Amino acid sequence: MAAPVRIFLLVLLLLGPGGWGRAEPPRDSLREELVITPLPSGDVAATFQFRTRWDSELQREGGTDHSFLRYAVLPREVVCTENLTPWKKLLPCSSKAGLSVLLKADRLFHTSYHSQAVHIRPVCRNARCTSVSWELRQTLSVVFDAFVTGQGKKDWSLFRMFSRTLTEPCPLASESRVYVDVTSYGQDNETLEVYPPPLTTYQDVILGTRKTYAVYDLLDAAVVSNSRSLNIQLKWKRPPENEAPPVPFLYAQRYVSGYGLQSGQLSTLLYNTHPYRAFPVLLLDTVPWYLRLYVHTLTITSKGKENKPSYIHYQPAQDRMQPHLLEMLIQLPASSITKVSIQFERALLKWTEYTPDPNHGFYVSPSVLSALVPSVVAAKPGDWEESPLFNSLFPVSDSSSYFVRLYTEPLLVSLPTPDFSMPYNVVCLTCTVVAVCYGSFYNLLTRTFQIEEPRKGGLVKRLANLIRRARGVPPL
Amino acid sequence: MGLLSDPVRRRALARLVLRLNAPLCVLSYVAGIAWFLALAFPPLTQRTYMSENAMGSTMVEEQFAGGDRARSLARDFAAHRRKSGALPVAWLERTMRSVGLEVYTQSFSRKLPFPDETHERYMVSGINVYGILRHLAASTESLVLTVPCGPDSTNSQAVGLMLALAAHFRGQIYWAKDIIFLVTEHDLLGTEAWLEAYHDVNITGMQSSPLQGRAGAIQAAVALELSSDVVTSLDVAVEGLNGQLPNLDLLNLFQTFCQKGGLLCTLQGKLQPQDWTSIDGPLQSVQTLLLMVLQQASGRPHGAHGLFLRYRVEALTLRGINSFRQYKYDLVAVGKALEGMFRKLNHLLERLHQSFFFYLLPALSRFVSIGLYMPAAGFLLLVLGLKALELWMQLHEAGVGPEEAGENPPHPLTQGVGLASLVAPLLVSQAMGLALYILPVLGQHVATQHFPVAEAEAVVLTLLAIYAAGLALPHNTHRVVSTQAPDRGWMALKLVALIYLALQLACITLTNFSLGFLLAASMVPAAAITKPSGPRYVLLSPHCRARTPPHGFYLTRSSSPPGASAPPQGALRCPAGADEPSSYTPGQLVPVAGAAGGTALPDRGLAALPGHAGPGRAGAPHLRRPALPTAGSGPLPLLAALLERALLEVTEAAGSSPRSLLPRK
């Protein structure tokens, strides 16, 4: 899949030694941004970014204590309105003003892709890091499906996407901007047209490619005042053709191979489509314990040859306690497909351990890929504080590469499942029948039956005979 | 059990079994056949009902209205296809992408074991095209709508309808599962190639490119075959590879939408009987039942859906039939039925598992569950059990009471049946079974290299060779027989063979009832009756007469195989005739347990010659294996050997390679 950044409810918390929620911090500043990107397929991607910072009195201790590093995944959960509402309440203006008025659940979930995230991190306020600010950063990405909403047309407007228009910035915001990606994919610049015409444009390198954005600053009175509302529209002069979207340099695919309920194989395909540069990828896999991994079958092949990872960390599972953890650093050769596969056996659970819908299957969490992907265009080193928020989502470590974290799709694996429709009577009946039949048949098969003439009298007769013999009389 | 542990009553029971053995056997056999035929009648058939809650009520409003679009797409597809002479891959890719699917292709090739007689080709290669409709959440589950396109069959209307459905589905937001729209080339070959690549296994030696796009675990699949713009009825096929069947709920689902849309739906080409009270209804359902049993026993998939079943994907095939009926339905009606089915399948929370996996269908809305049809096979196998019991009693004199024991002089070698002497013939039979299973394929290449024969002929010749080698079996069995008590030898051998046969038939019946039942119905009488009594002997080598009796005689029997000949009535009337042949004196001719039945078999082998099959089937890999000799000719151990081969084939239903994927006609 071309856009593999599927985000689940993922919690990666770096907690400091103290509880950070104790003090009521003064709200410092809010920056809000909306980035709208028309995709080559005709769909429209919209990304909301909110960043709130507040000061805290907690002291930041030097270094990170890794005993507080936690990683948890709920692969079964799908982000839905129940997640959106509390997420919106974290915003200073809730959904009353600013960009967040556009966040209407009925529109946001009529989309073909939806992802929302919350990041919290401490930020040093000075060079020596003696005092710490906390930063809460919320992002929401949706892809509007042109086929569903636009009835085949690929023009869009804010009103058509969100059924709302922008009227005012959030009063608490220090910055409130809308960015529209107007980068022309073709040779000429005249493929699309934005209305109202933007006052400023902004150019930068995002994910390795140079992009041009039309910028609408809501704090600028001229933008909103004309019609008291801002409804940005984009029209295609020449509709984009239905061509396959450009392939990213790094993407991945994961699947279960094999069939039957005994064994199987987890396969992860890592695609490096860069024409000439190899780069390393850190692959993190957590596999639940009921898939018993055969670690000796771990094979990594790229271009038909074995690829030896430069670093492997494996932590075996304990039944019902902890999952398998497999972390590898793999070098992906240029323009190659690397296949990481490992075989497993499906465990038989205890009958109380099955979920209420065991035939649905059991989820295996997605693997996580972290990589520094080389970019085509050299980025200019900028001041992160000044550049837009979305820029720092993909921080540039040096000029030639950018950091990407990918999540593959979760997997659904069916385990051997007993028939729960009537376990008790079936088990009981079978046991009874087997017990009764087994006993009797064993008895019949191992004994030989003979007819004996019954000896009458027994003990009494023998005693009588003894007496008779003593008396010298013939026995009975 | 008390009955059996009481010696007196036990003796009485044993005497009953011995005396009434023949009538009991006949009765049991007749009861089995009668039970089977009675399966089509209402007390034994039940009405089908939907077990799966998620698909329970039909609260789905079908909105598909793309009939014109489907027809124009079908015309385009047919035109492009005529132009290119193969599957128009580029057109399909373009159209699917314009509809809004993620499109991928997969190329595959397979060397056929036999050259195709009509096209003179060994290598079949083709390209599958599939598009994935993604839904909002992560791709963990999917449904498949597949259209197999054969080299000759025009399935263009199905492709058109599939694309129009894809366009309609793409505009909806309620999907909770991905939907894969798959167009396969070369019918089942393409389907198998795609399935193997999707599950990343290789079991048929297919060379195919790896799949670029996947959509999680496939929950259900529907194969669609249409050859005209209008249909009069929809035929549904359920029988899969090796007689596997999809969950009954899937069929119920189809039937629900048949009724809802007022479509005329058929099973095995037969309409559902309307009137169950008169004799016509049940008679029609008997026909349907028999057709299904034959279809299932063949083990061939009755459509592209049959290959999905191995991967635990419930699947069925819908065929549009255009006959001369008055009422015709256009593609919209078919499309609405499919849309309804897919929306219902979309509701599924778990895999289809609630309803039956083992059933027989006398009509579309009636079914027979496994608990009701198994007694039919049970009665047939009881015959073998009774016969074995009789032999056991005769061998051990268990049932012979004191008065009978007094009448007949006690047997000189009562306890002398050495099981060790049975090992050799049993091993030989086992080896025969294995040889029948393995050698025709192994020997095929060797034979074509060294002899001027075609590949297809080589298989038949190998079979002939094995059957000829089977003739050596009687020579081996005479070691068992050639003790002083020849009777006991063949009795012990037959006892073991009967039990073995019964066990294997029971196993086959469990996995594929139709095959097991047909085999039992044809083999049981022969197996029960076969007995080396009353043959005419031809002495082959007179000069051997001077030598010692057991090893000096090479006998063959000129009578026809025991299954075909009239059964020796004496054998049935005096089952306790164990003492009679014991009066053979040394030098007298000793009957040999096996009969030379091998000559009758190659005819059946020839009937299954690939070259003699239909044109599209020529070179089908499933014909690499000889067709099963079903009739009960030939000696008993050989029967067991054949059975073992059949069992090996059937057990592959759960396991390895499929034998029958080939371009249907």
UniProtKB/TrEMBL annotation, chain A:
One of its GO terms (cellular component) is GPI-anchor transamidase complex. Residues 1-23 form the signal peptide. Keywords: Signal. It comes from the Eukaryota. One of its GO terms (biological process) is attachment of GPI anchor to protein. This is Phosphatidylinositol glycan anchor biosynthesis class T. The gene is PIGT.
From TrEMBL, chain B:
It is found in: Endoplasmic reticulum membrane. Keywords: Disulfide bond, Endoplasmic reticulum, Glycoprotein, GPI-anchor biosynthesis, Membrane, Transmembrane, Transmembrane helix. GO terms for cellular component: centrosome; cytosol; GPI-anchor transamidase complex; mitochondrion. It is a multi-pass membrane protein. Residues 558-571 have a biased composition (Low complexity). Residues 551-588 are annotated as: Disordered. GO terms for biological process: attachment of GPI anchor to protein; GPI anchor biosynthetic process. Pathway: Glycolipid biosynthesis; glycosylphosphatidylinositol-anchor biosynthesis. The chain crosses the membrane at residues 20-41, 356-384, 417-439, 451-473, 493-521. It holds the Pfam family Gaa1. Signal peptide: none annotated. GO terms for molecular function: GPI anchor binding. Heteropentamer. Part of the GPI-anchor transamidase complex, consisting of PIGK, PIGT, PIGS, PIGU and GAA1. Interacts with PIGK. Component of the glycosylphosphatidylinositol-anchor (GPI-anchor) transamidase (GPI-T) complex that catalyzes the formation of the linkage between a proprotein and a GPI-anchor and participates in GPI anchored protein biosynthesis. Binds GPI-anchor. This is GPI-anchor transamidase component GPAA1.
